[in-house]
Automatic annotation (TrEMBL):
Gene Ontology biological process terms from the UniProt entry: iron ion transmembrane transport
Cited InterPro entries: NRAMP_fam
Entry GO CC: plasma membrane
Record keywords, A-Z: Membrane, Transmembrane, Transmembrane helix
Name of the protein this chain belongs to: Divalent metal cation transporter
UniProt subcellular location: Membrane
Classification via PANTHER family: SOLUTE CARRIER PROTEIN FAMILY 11 MEMBER, TRANSPORTER PROTEIN
Principal subcellular localisation of the protein: membrane
Pfam families attached to this UniProt entry: Nramp
GO MF: cadmium ion transmembrane transporter activity; manganese ion transmembrane transporter activity
TM segment ranges: 36-54, 75-97, 109-130, 142-160, 180-200, 221-247, 267-294, 306-323, 329-352, 364-387
Keyword Membrane tagged: yes
């Protein structure tokens, strides 16, 4: 394999993984570990299996059809691609406001500046990536560097917290508690909304597509889930070490509390670095992927792709600096986001068996069955979350 191809495949994997590892990822992992203790390992295991099933199906079908998800959806049912693109862009924009807020929090911890000033600085950094000529290559390098940094620092904190590894392993396979909502939340946070398409669309942009590249595309899709899962596992173990010691985690900022309890003031500063890295890479991934969902609708949009990405980041940053995080919108969009995966994966599975989209390619039956099970399970749980979430917003 060419070094350039290897770099693109790794870049796509890290783009997807770091898009998943955002402020919500850090908070969810520490909060659920606090609630479920060692049994959260089982939740992670199940979510990884579901994530791989969804990711492999979607990336392979994008690669073999050589089309982006919205165009595939329009081929399956005219107009559906526009609906999917609308859901993705609105969800991406809302969550990007949260990502910018997380970046502001990270700089606040590191340098003591206000979250608003930190958000402004982080927005400028993200915009800067897309202003250079080789924006795609710089984006790949940026997400890889910060991805390795996050994982390395979290491993250090995990060793400091000294978790009971044996109990964690045991409860991963024999849980005391099974929390379905936690599973859905983790799956939605790892492959929900725009996230699962980040790497697949990146590979298309880099020209890595077609049946001749399917093996590498599949490996890259699994690597992406692997990278995000490694981060999740080490953060779970770091938190479990604190929980097992009976130390009190601050509910106002669980991940910061875990890092501080594990490694003192150094740990708190490490949290600042991890939070900023997680947030700013998610900002980059959300902006790039959201725009990739609309740029094929018009030659004008295609021509001004970089300007659209920059505008996406500027709008997210401006809303956070002026308004703050719109909690109700984030919760509502989060509920809707849970429904995007079954819709998008369902469309992809139908497309995989349409000759006008994939030619004479034969999608593996086991992948179709695996994907169909995920569609049914996630549709049910996503609908349950949405129905129960909306009344709470207005109560």
């Amino acid at each position: 394999m060419k070094n350039s191809n290897r770099s693109v495949l790794l870049g796509a994997a890290f783009l997807m993984a770091t898009s998943a590892i955002g402020p919500g990822f850090l908070t969810q992992t520490t909060t659920f570990t606090q609630t479920l203790a060692a049994s959260f390992g089982f939740v992670i295991l199940v979510s990884i299996i579901i994530d791989i099933g969804a990711q492999m199906n979607i990336w392979r079908i994008i690669a073999v059809s050589e089309k982006r998800a919205q165009d595939i959806a329009n081929d399956v049912f005219p107009g559906l691609g526009y609906v999917l693109a609308f859901l993705i862009v609105m969800g991406g924009l809302a969550f990007n406001i949260g990502n910018i807020g997380g970046a502001g929090l990270g700089t606040n911890v590191l340098f003591g500046v206000s979250p608003e000033m930190g958000a402004l600085f982080s927005g400028i950094v993200a915009v800067g990536i897309f202003l250079v000529k080789e924006a795609g290559r710089l984006m790949d390098r940026f997400t890889q560097l910060l991805g390795f940094l996050m994982i390395g620092l979290t491993i250090f904190v995990m060793f400091q917290s000294q978790p009971p590894i044996g109990e964690a392993i045991t409860r991963t396979f024999i849980p005391e508690t099974i929390d379905l909502l936690a599973i859905v939340t983790l799956v939605g946070g790892t492959v929900g909304g725009y996230i699962t398409f980040a790497g697949g669309h990146r590979l298309l942009d880099a020209g890595l597509k077609g049946r001749e590249n399917l093996g590498e595309v599949t490996k890259s899709s699994i690597s992406a889930i692997g990278i995000a899962s490694i981060m999740r596992i080490f953060l779970f173990l770091a938190t479990f070490g604190i929980v097992a010691q009976g130390l009190q985690i601050d509910p106002s900022n669980p991940p910061a509390s875990v890092f501080q309890l594990a490694a003192g003031n150094v740990g708190y500063k490490i949290f600042g670095v991890v939070m900023w890295a997680a947030a700013v890479t998610s900002v980059v991934g959300a902006a790039y992927t959201s725009v990739s969902f609309i740029k094929t609708f018009s030659p004008v949009l295609q021509k001004y792709e970089k300007l659209l990405i920059v505008s996406f980041i500027v709008i997210s940053t401006t809303v956070f600096v002026i308004v703050g995080q719109p909690v109700m919108i984030l919760i509502l969009v989060g509920s809707v986001n849970g429904l995007i995966l079954p819709i998008s994966l369902g469309v992809m599975l139908i497309a995989a068996h349409k000759a006008k989209i994939v030619g004479d390619y034969k999608h593996p039956i086991w992948m179709t069955v695996f994907g169909a099970i995920i569609v049914v399970v996630m549709a049910y749980m996503g609908g349950y979350t949405l129905i129960n979430g909306i009344p709470q917003l207005f109560s």
